């Protein structure tokens, strides 16, 4: 009898014990889940992080990367919080790094920054771009130069000409991040449309350099493919480009090219002395100039000259070019 009793009780005690352990485990798990919001709120928000920055994507992963880039540590819970509602839209944000972590991440949806428009003109050097941005936005020119140099891949031509909407109170870092990121998106889109596979850095540099010369020589969309053809025709024949635009680089951007300048400038940008293209682009470009650099019109032109009305006269031979010069001088006299 005794043995039968213990044989019945022991399995029952085991079942009760197992159920008790499961109950305790479940209670502990629920307790941890209940405490998660408390511990989550204890994770500090970096008070020295960037206050104003641009979000260029509505993808939660991209937003997480942008926040990290601007000094905000993003946890897996933060990523979940960002997806609780509609993700923040593209645009400028002005955030206050609230010590309350949940409030901070919720604030991303509400705190859009006040914006203004700035213009990046075609053919400008980086120095001119920086000077204008510094003046228009009352920013430190030296800091802008440092931020530009950190990001520049091709020295010039990294920023695409056009109108940009920026946050009024953005600092130097945020502005350069935005200009470079937005320009890269435009360039990447152009490359995706026109190349079957990703071109090398050298190919892009050459394309930007040709486009920047075209941009300096004309603002006419109709003439751009013609000037592009002259550049390639001269390069293919082993001729020097001999273009004033290549001497108008950096601080010499709007300087009148003189015979003395041609004699004294020994840099690779002096295409009167050196064959081939300059080593880097010489200024900002438009997508129209970039398209012309990639798709020059077929021609036998080797020369061109500016006329009084702002258009150019084109010539296939030096004799024709001299005749164009003579006509131009005669028109000036009359």
Shape: elongated
Number of helices: 12
The radius of gyration computed from the alpha-carbon positions, rounded to a whole number of angstroms, is: 32 Å
Q: Helix amount, in percent?
A: 40-55%
Output the strand order for the largest sheet.
1-2
How many beta strands in the DSSP annotation? 6
Give me the strand/helix succession: HEHHEHEHHEHHHHHEEH
Overall structural class, as computed from helix and strand content, comes to mainly alpha
- Head-to-tail CA distance between termini: 136 Å
**Amount of beta strand:** 5-15%
Mean pLDDT comes to: 84
Describe the 3D structure.
The protein has 334 residues and is mainly α. Among the domains are: 56 residues, no CATH class; 132 residues, no CATH class. Helices cover 51% and strands 8% of the residues. The chain is built from twelve helices and six strands. The chain has a two-stranded antiparallel sheet with strand order 1-2. β5 and β6 form a beta hairpin. α5 packs across α6 and α9 packs across α11. The model has no long low-confidence stretch (mean pLDDT 84).
Lay out the secondary structure.
Layout: H1 2-42, E1 52-55, H2 60-69, H3 76-82, E2 91-94, H4 101-107, E3 115-120, H5 126-137, H6 141-151, E4 162-167, H7 172-194, H8 201-217, H9 224-236, H10 259-264, H11 287-294, E5 303-306, E6 312-315, H12 318-333
Antiparallel strand pairs: 1-2, 3-4, 5-6
